[in-house]
Write a structure and sequence with these properties.
Blueprint (H helix, E strand, L loop, with lengths): L2 H6 L17 E2 L2 E4 L2 E4 L4 E11 L5 E10 L3 H15 L11 H16 L2 H12 L3 H28 L4 E3 L2 E9 L2 E5 L7 H12 L3 E5 L12 H7 L5 E3 L4 H10 L5 E5 L2 H10 L7 E5 L4 E5 L5 H13 L9 E7 L3 H13 L21 H14 L3 E2 L7 E2 L2 E2 L2 E4 L6 H4 L6 E7 L3 H9 L2 E2 L1 E5 L3 H11 L5 E4 L15 E2 L2 E2 L4 H7 L1 E9 L2 H12 L13
Parallel strand pairs: 1-5, 8-9, 8-11, 9-10, 11-12, 13-14, 13-21, 14-19, 18-19, 21-22
Antiparallel strand pairs: 2-3, 4-5, 6-7, 7-25, 12-24, 15-18, 16-17, 20-23
Helix pairs in contact: 2-8, 3-5, 3-7, 4-5, 5-6, 10-11
Length: 541
């Protein structure tokens, strides 16, 4: 079967889906508010999988694998008020609970979560088309993130367990919660990146309302009972439905103290603007990126090709950290482009459960048509698709495209494609990619491929003032989770990492008093009697 036929026949017959991976329809009616799992009897929103099912006589039809509640403003406000009640202006059981007890709740949740691994992994494949190894990795990494967060909080709490004396004042400084937090994650990592904000927000004592991403909703259903069983009423509440209908009223209420959102800058701006007191709103935002790779004349081209292919096409390029444009020096352009195109042609494509598959169908319904439009625009501007069948569309599947040379003024040159297209631009003077980075609306990461230390150093120094991570002879990426993850310009607001996230979802707070005999006695009695969760010298191991 030639490549054209393989693309045309990418989708399986129902009987050819391995029995282990067959997905039955899920009618989700459950939602969690105020510690109880409620049943929704209103209209639902259909979940259409990127995986299509082929017909015996040809063609393939979209596969609807379930539905989830299409809630209204009324249910959204019930969830919000449950979170507000649980926080109770900082007087609630959760925000006043000791760190050790909150940790215990999180670990109970992690244990219950592990039991749902198979269900969640299955739904990651069917809902967003993520291949099996990456789906398993996302689940396992999320559990590890919870454990790492617990350890980071223990260390932070140990640092805050002592008293300070300065200029006649005694004080203890710790971190306190912000209040009610709205968490909204992205569809490309609907579990991991949602939990990357949800977990630190919870463990620091905030109460949470969270809305799953538009794609990747059902996979959180198996965890509702774990949430309900692990946390006090109102600490975790879920909202489902169209964003404008359910999130608009929540933000307009002014009752949200912290917004944790990963998605587009356009939506983030609308959310922030809808809050009546934006100066009171703490925002933790992961937004867009157009991360460039720069291939220098002395680069190891085999290494550069391997890293750039992985960086550009992991999960079909649907990562904010993906390499989204490549600048290659004219002296090595022909060799790099040839090797890159051949490597892309070697990527196995197919269904998420197939062994070795790297490229899968796309979950956003209109994305293949948009990418095809951008590729056609580039071709009219003088670019060419240099890999076989690059840009061919079959329903939800878009075959990876290598576009060379990328032309300034086209969408692929400046806009974030968030899909399996790699534009490659050629440069003669290094000032071209540097100017590109300086003028970009984004400032997340860049990747440099070269071998001369002096040249690399001369580029590192200006780039660290434009982006927040410069990768040397390696792809752009988020991990390890202990490293800070943020961006400049339109790419982010706030910093996420295991330890940084604890800080962005809390605020430094102190109890202080003049160093008098009476105050010393008060502090001593409170600490010895363990009368306060905040004011204490307990040391967590």
């Amino acid at each position: 079967m030639n490549l054209t036929e393989r693309i045309s026949n990418i989708f399986p017959l129902q009987e050819n889906v391995p029995e282990r991976f067959r997905q039955s329809r899920i009618e989700q009616t459950e939602y969690l508010v105020d510690g109880k799992i409620h049943s929704w009897d209103g209209p639902g929103i259909e979940v259409v999988s990127p995986v299509r099912i082929a017909a015996a006589d040809g063609g393939a039809s979209p596969c609807t694998i379930g539905s989830f509640p299409s809630m209204t403003a009324q249910q959204a406000m019930e969830a919000l008020h449950a979170a507000v009640k649980a926080y109770d202006a900082g007087r609630g059981p959760w925000p006043t609970m000791g760190v050790e007890k909150r940790i215990e709740h999180l670990l109970n949740f992690a244990r219950a979560m592990k039991e749902k691994r198979e269900e969640v992994v299955q739904l990651l494949m069917w809902e967003i088309g993520k291949n099996l190894p990456d789906s398993e990795k996302e689940f396992d990494r999320t559990v590890d993130y919870i454990i790492d967060t617990v350890e980071a909080l223990k260390e932070m709490d140990r640092d805050g367990s002592r008293f300070f004396r300065e200029q006649g004042v005694t004080a203890q400084i710790r971190r306190a919660p912000l209040g009610v937090t709205l968490c909204m994650g992205p569809y490309n990592y609907p579990l991991n990146e949602t939990f990357a904000t949800l977990v630190p927000a919870l463990i620091m004592g905030n109460t949470v309302v969270f809305k799953p991403a538009k794609h990747g909703v059902l996979l959180l259903r198996p965890l509702l009972e774990a949430f309900a069983g692990a946390f006090p009423p109102g600490v975790v509440n879920t909202v489902y439905g169209e964003g404008a209908a359910v999130i608009g009223p929540v933000m307009e209420s002014g009752l949200v103290d912290c917004l944790a959102f990963i998605g587009s800058s356009h939506v983030a701006d609308l959310l922030k603007q809808s809050h009546p007191k934006p100066h009171r709103l703490r925002c933790v935002l992961g937004l867009g990126a157009k991360n460039p790779a720069v291939i220098l004349p002395g680069a190891d081209l085999d290494l550069a090709v391997a890293e750039c292919v992985t960086g550009a096409f992991s999960f079909n390029g649907q990562r904010c950290t993906a390499i989204k444009i490549i600048f290659v020096h004219e002296s090595v352009a022909e060799r790099f482009v040839d090797g890159f195109a051949r490597a892309v042609e070697g990527l196995k494509f197919g269904m998420p459960w197939e062994d070795g598959v790297k490229v899968t169908p796309l979950p956003v319904p209109d994305k293949p048509a948009m990418l095809a439009k951008w590729v056609e625009e580039a071709k009219k501007a003088g670019s060419a698709v240099v890999n076989e069948m690059g840009g061919r569309v079959n329903g939800s599947y878009f075959h990876p495209a290598v576009v060379y040379p990328a032309v300034k003024g086209t969408a692929l040159y400046s806009r974030e494609q968030f899909g399996p297209v790699a534009p490659i631009a050629v440069y003669k003077d290094i000032s071209k990619p540097i100017r590109y980075i300086e003028h970009s609306a984004y400032g997340q990461q860049a990747a440099l491929f070269g071998s001369d230390p002096k040249t690399m150093a001369s580029l590192i120094d200006p780039l660290v003032n434009q982006v927040c991570r410069v990768n040397i002879n390696s792809q752009c990426q988020r991990g390890p989770d202990a490293f800070p993850f943020t961006g400049r310009k339109g790419s982010a607001e706030g910093t996420l990492s295991v330890s940084d996230a604890l800080r962005v979802f809390s605020i430094r707070t102190m109890v202080a008093g003049k160093d008098t005999e009476m105050n010393q006695e008060i502090f001593s009695n409170i600490v010895r009697g363990r009368h306060s969760s905040f004011l204490n010298t307990d040391y967590l191991f």
